[in-house]
Specification:
By secondary structure, the chain is of the alpha/beta class. It folds into two domains: 279 residues, Alpha/Beta hydrolase fold, catalytic domain (Rossmann fold), CATH 3.40.50.1820; 127 residues, no CATH class. The chain contains 15 helices and 14 strands. Strands 1, 2, 3, 4, 7, 8, 9, 10, 13 and 14 form a ten-stranded mixed beta sheet that branches. A two-stranded antiparallel sheet has the order 5-6. A two-stranded antiparallel ribbon has the order 11-12. Strand 11 and strand 12 form a beta hairpin. Helix 5 runs antiparallel to helix 7. The radius of gyration is 23 Å and the shape is globular.
Length: 519
């Protein structure tokens, strides 16, 4: 099920946050086959696609980091995944960066990075956070005026790891092979299978099996990364050193508003409080300090508010009034509105209601950013202003960069974020919420050297930080492994790296994390 909140897709965040995959399940491990996920035979001429051809462009570059010039090679290309009979299965596009001043590249860390959606290419982490070039945004992440500019990224992760940005099939320039049904890649299992196949092939082609291996994912990319940690271990014997999760979601129950599931209402509350604080809608005592406001919101959400939600219709009138008063205090909304919403404020309603008197809405991916709707009396925003702030900038800059700087030539459309992957199948999770936290727990248990870092934005209302804390607190890890998961925070949104100070913080946190995750 897709959220009905915004007609435009989100850059990095989940577009399908609810469990019940309507389609039948995808396959697990094993060799790619000739069936669709529903099991129907594939007709060779039903799915026209460009020829599955491997194309590679290598270019030499240089960047100055900490006063030192760093030479590196950029490789933009496609790998053709093949079935066991040798027939092409898919052509996957990637951009890799490797430092040229390293003596033993086989021992240097290697990070595979991707975004989410599902349906998103890796453009956002690539050009916003980890790559050696980044899109120029305002210091707080504001949308710049065109023409847009590309900058050297002094926070690039190339400082401490080689990088491979992967575009899953149907995103970026990645496509199914001719005659192959693209639907087989558009699901939880098909996606895992193809991305894992790419990683395995890349390691073999580049002779990087000995390298310390890391994953970095954002939004649904964190769902993919946490699942891959187990999939790669079980199917390919690939043990990871570390995983960086940016704006994470592993348990979809924590973000799926709906009748019968009260959990998200409590878990979104601290993000509402932080956003209301930013827009100066809180009482004076809370407005004085963000951390104090968020701390009080955490305590109420995990205490009295959770108890009240569990009581349901058995909540007394006085209890209900007290809860409504506290919710109004912590959200900047009126007690009357909170009462009318039955003490349950969905993210869509909050985004529309907080600044309604100013005829403004706020962003889902970054609650700091404001938008304007034609209908100020509506229930949901017409669009997400925080996605609108990045969509055109990143798309224009990347398309120029890949051709002008990296010399990769193609007439294909770069699918930065596409709806062509829908319907997305969550077959193995049918009739229950998607939850990959258990898969990551199993990987961390079998590979006790695996470490995880999770970066959170206070104003992210797509994958709220308190929901991530809840998921981590319910991993069920043995006490000896609990310290292997660390969380960082910044005053930004879902794409927290669009704020320069948060990008600086992400770089420092990741550098420290990699040092701890390495032998």
């Amino acid at each position: 099920m897709r959220l009905r909140i915004f007609p435009a897709f989100a850059a990095c965040a989940l577009l399908i946050p609810v469990l019940n995959a309507q389609g039948r399940g995808g396959r697990g491990g094993g060799a790619p086959g000739q069936q669709t996920e529903a099991g129907a035979p594939v007709a060779a001429d039903r799915f026209p696609a460009p020829p599955a051809v491997e194309t590679t462009s290598k270019t030499k570059h240089e960047i100055t980091l900490n006063g030192k010039k760093i030479p590196y090679t950029a490789t933009a290309g496609t790998l053709v995944l093949k079935k066991e009979d040798g027939k092409p299965w898919a052509s996957m596009f990637y951009v890799a960066y490797t430092r040229d001043d390293v003596q033993d590249t086989g021992k240097r860390p290697l990070t595979f990075a991707f975004n989410g959606g599902p349906g998103s290419a890796s453009i956002w982490l690539h050009m916003g956070a980890l790559g050696p070039k980044r899109v120029e945004m305002g210091s707080e992440g504001e949308q710049p005026k065109p023409p847009y500019h590309l900058l050297d990224n002094d926070d690039t992760a190339l400082d401490f790891t080689d990088l491979v940005f992967i575009d899953p099939v149907t995103t970026g320039f990645s496509r199914n092979a001719p005659g192959e049904n693209p639907a087989q890649f558009h699901g939880f299992d098909g996606d895992l299978q193809s991305v894992a196949a790419f990683i395995r092939m890349y390691l073999a082609r580049t002779q990087r099996w000995d390298s310390p291996k890391f994953l970095a994912g954002e939004s649904y990319g964190t769902t993919r990364a946490s699942a891959l940690s187990q999939y790669l271990l079980d199917n390919d014997g690939i043990y990871l050193n570390g995983i960086t999760l940016i704006s994470s979601v592993m348990n979809f129950e924590t973000i799926s508003f709906g009748a019968g599931n009260d959990l998200p209402y409590a878990l979104f509350l601290p993000s509402y409080t932080a956003t209301a604080w930013y827009h100066k809608k809180l009482p004076k005592d809370l407005q004085a300090d963000l951390e104090k406001a968020v701390g009080e919101s955490r305590r109420f959400a995990s205490g009295d508010y959770t108890v009240a939600l569990m009581k349901g219709d058995k909540l007394t009138a006085s209890e209900r009034a007290n809860v409504a008063k506290q919710l109004a205090r912590l959200t900047g909304l009126s007690e009357e509105y909170v009462e009318e919403a039955n003490l349950r404020i969905s993210m869509q309603r909050f985004a529309k209601e907080l600044l309604r008197k100013e005829r403004l809405t706020i962003g889902r991916y970054d609650g700091r950013l404001k938008g304007m709707d034609l209908d100020a009396a509506g229930e949901r925003p017409e669009y997400d202003p925080s996605y609108a702030s990045v969509q055109g900038v990143f798309t224009a800059v990347f398309n120029e960069y890949i051709r002008a700087d990296l010399k990769f030539e193609t007439d294909l459309t770069y699918e930065a974020l596409t709806g062509k992957v829908r319907p997305w199948s969550y077959g193995r999770f049918e009739n229950r919420y998607v939850d990959t936290a258990e898969m990551m727990r199993q990987a961390m248990t079998q590979n006790p050297n695996l470490k995880v870092m999770i970066a959170n934005g206070y104003y992210d209302m797509a994958t709220p930080f308190f929901a991530t804390e809840y998921t981590v607190n319910h991993l069920g890890l043995e006490p000896s492994l609990s310290s292997h998961v660390s969380l960082t925070y910044c005053e930004a949104g879902h794409m927290l790296y669009t704020k320069k100070a948060c990008l600086d913080n992400l770089h420092k946190s990741m550098a420290d994390f990699y040092q701890k995750a390495l032998p």
